[in-house]
Amino acid sequence: MRVVIVDSSTLIHLFAIGRLPLLTEIFGRWTVPPAVWREVVEQGKDRARIAALEALRDEDRLELREPTNLPLVRALQADLDEGEAEVIALATETSGSLAVLDEAEARRIATTFGIEKTGAIGILLRAKLEGRIEALRPDLDRLRTEAGFWIADPLYRTILAAAGE
User: Fold this and answer.
1) The pLDDT value given to residue 1
2) Residues of 62-71 as b/e, b for ≥16 C-beta within 10 angstroms?
């Protein structure tokens, strides 16, 4: 089974638009490193999001896994926050994994390591193409307006075209 390692921003954005369940629907079980758990749950302020993530952990849908290459985590923190650094380090340690990252710099660095990646938009597009959601445009619009997710207009149009909308 493929290991899917998810960063904080994707969790926060998908939850904000009511699409957090797509992670489990698409991937079954997924992983977060400790820094992501701390940021989203232990330091988080959104009680509903915290309860949802704790329930997924208790149902064994969400796994907490710590990267072992701590020197790499520290080196990556020169350019990334701790959660992104742990996601990338964990992905380098887990053959065939998928990193779920939204921040441009984290995605760029993941590419330099040859890590396959997606993000909130990729998950929504996949959900649309697999028939898990009816329309992509409302979710992209909600990402922009409700979740504060920046999507450049050319990318917005490209994603909608890929979804046939």
Assistant:
1) 76
2) beeeebeeee
